[in-house]
Amino acid sequence: MGGINGSTFVVMGAVAAAALGAIGSGMGIGRTTAHAGGILSEKPELFGKMLIIMALPGTQGIYSLVLMFLMLQFFGFISGNPQASLGKGLAMLVVGICIGLNEFKTALDQAHAAIGSLDLVSKKPEESGRAILLPALVETYAILGLLAGVLLTLWVSNAAF
Question: In this structure, how many other beta carbons lie within 10 angstroms of the beta carbon of residue 40?
């Protein structure tokens, strides 16, 4: 033990990924639910049609948490034998920050799209199915961020540096 080593940076990367994704999701859901609250005060019958739209920005927090667990798993933290060279640790810090920022930003962008969808449903409730598709387009990039994080974590954990 003692001092900062590669494993320390892996943990820092995992924490950055999870924290940034969770913060973005919390902010995104806060925005969509606040907007929906105003609509539902006049049209409470639309709650069921709006629920999924309000919740969509929360997926980035889940993706970031998954990435955090995979980072910790690939570098031996779950088994109790953490091992990472300084180079691998620094690489994982960069991966964690970059993917965390991707998840943070897509959560906010998805909230923005979801607010437009909530307005659509408030005016045309029969369009709720199509309205879900608008913020779901942003979801593609959150999923690509998770995929990139998983692939990079796997690659770094098996690299020879």
Answer: 17
